[in-house]
Amino acid sequence: MASTIKAVLRKKPNQDGTFPLALRVTNNRKSTYVYLKQNLKETEWDANGQKVKKSHPNSVWLNNFILAKKAEINDQLLQLATQKKDTSVTSVRRTIKQTMGSSFFAQASLYCDQLEKNGKFNQKSADLPRINRFKEFLKGADIGFADINPGILRQFQAYLRGSRKITERTVVNHLVVIRTIFNQAITAGLVDQKYYPFGKGKISIKFPDSSKIGLTAEEVKLLEEVDLTGGQHHARNLFLIALFFAGMRISDVLRLKWSDFQNDRLYYSMGKNLKTGSFKVPEKAAKILAEYPKINPHNLVFPDLACMADLSNSYTVQSYIKTRTKSCNDYLKQVAEKISLPKTLTMHIARHTFAQISSDKIPVNILQRLYRHSDIKTTMGYQSNFINKTTDDALDSVVNL
Fold first, then answer.
1. What's the domain range around 134?
2. Structure confidence at residue 66 (pLDDT)
3. Residue 374 domain-assigned?
4. In the predicted model, is pLDDT for residue 381 greater than 60?
């Protein structure tokens, strides 16, 4: 199989006057083009030398990029020849496509589209900025999956810690998104498993421990007793309802319907994992619920989502819940100042507060049912942030001589 690989600028210019950079692969006098997702001005390209001129600010990187892509394609062509497989131009084009894969950011765009179609607003709103930071790190350039190696990812980690000044947990979240998109491309057959940069001896993803602090029983009592009106009063009600129902997530609180309450019990499916269950309605919770009319749009208990015309569009609903959560958290911040609370007070802290107060009172197997965790190890790991009595007693036994 007589094959040649040549770097060229395509003849048709882009709207900005630049030209697409491509590799022309010729096999048995028939050619196919592999576009490298890079664009150059004619004055920046050395056609005879098949390289980017030194006048281009990223000439060294681009020339190494071209050489690497040539080597990848040549390796695949040699494998075809050695294995005596189909060497038609169609087969060569298909093999090259599998080798090169689609670009990372093309797959990232597809990934975000899928999240939106599946109604995953929260995940998309969190992951899209992480994808954009990776592109920012690459100075806006696209990148192939074969070029996302452990070295590049370590540089990206350093960039996030240094230039972006973000936490270690957030750094890990960026890597998780890249890994997810990489796995998506492998599953689609767009990139070979051998290029996978994660795992033993490569990039290891491990979430660092994070501190979780809830309110004490005394602080909850202060919150219950303070005189509030308007938005502060409503935000306090939502927080307490979340607390009284085992640290219910705000997204589930706002979607509660009156039909979820039957025979003095609450029956609902947890939005995060769709697990069903029921709780007895505590007297304190019943008192709060009595403040709200039972005739609301969509049969909702709380009015926050009542203005929405349709609750069936999960993506739109999650988007609006995020807006309402921010508003509630703003009010809770005001409440925290009013009661001189030295801790952050947000809707999510209701979950930590339940864990804090229940830590030495409820067996872990019961907590697993309350939290609706599939694995008791998840419950034990979460609850370990709040169980301090054993370690405190151990420390006292040494210090209090």
1. 104-195
2. 87
3. no
4. no
**200, part of any domain:** no
User: Which of 47, 76, 100 is the endpoint of a domain?
Assistant: 100
d(CA 213, CA 385): 8
DSSP one-letter string for 317-374: HHHHHHHHHHHHHHHHHHHHHHTT-SS---TTHHHHHHHHHHTTTS-HHHHHHHHT-S
Residue 123's alpha-carbon distances to 111, 178, 272, 317, 357, in angstroms, are 11, 14, 11, 13, 30
Local structure of residue 229 (DSSP, 8 states): -
In a domain, residue 204? The reply is: no
- 365 token code pair: 């197997």
3-state SS class at 283: helix
Contacts of 177 (CB under 8 A, 6+ apart): 127, 130, 131
- N-terminal to C-terminal alpha carbon distance within the chain: 85
* The pLDDT value given to residue 385: 56
- Residues 40 and 66 reside in one and the same domain: yes
What confidence score (pLDDT) does residue 190 get?
74
| CATH assignment of the domain containing 272 | 1.10.443
For the residues of 168-222, what is the DSSP string, one character each?
Answer: HHHHHHHHHHHHHHHHHHHHTTSS-GGG--BSTTSBPP-PPP-------HHHHHH
Task: Compute the distance between CA of residue 400 and CA of residue 148 in angstroms, rounded to an integer.
Answer: 55
Say whether both 179 and 123 belong to one domain: yes
Q: Coil, helix or strand for 393?
A: helix
The answer to whether the beta carbons of residues 271 and 252 sit under 8 Å apart is yes
Average pLDDT over residues 185-210: 84
User: Is 382 part of a structural domain of the chain?
Assistant: no
Same domain, 226 and 334: yes
Predicted confidence (pLDDT) per residue in 335-354, tens digit: 999 999 998 899 988 888 88
Quick one: which H or E segment has residue 51?
strand 51-52
Q: Do 227 and 346 fall within a single domain?
A: yes
DSSP string over 77-126 = HHHHHHTT---SHHHHHHHHHHHH-SBHHHHHHHHHHHHHHTT-HHHHHH
- Owner of token pair 């992951």: 127
Q: Are residues 187 and 241 in the same domain?
A: no
Looking up tokens 């491990």 gives 206
Do 303 and 187 fall into the same domain?
A: no
Residue written as tokens 């602080």? 219
The predicted-structure confidence for 246-270, as pLDDT tens digits, reads as follows 888 899 999 999 999 999 998 887 6
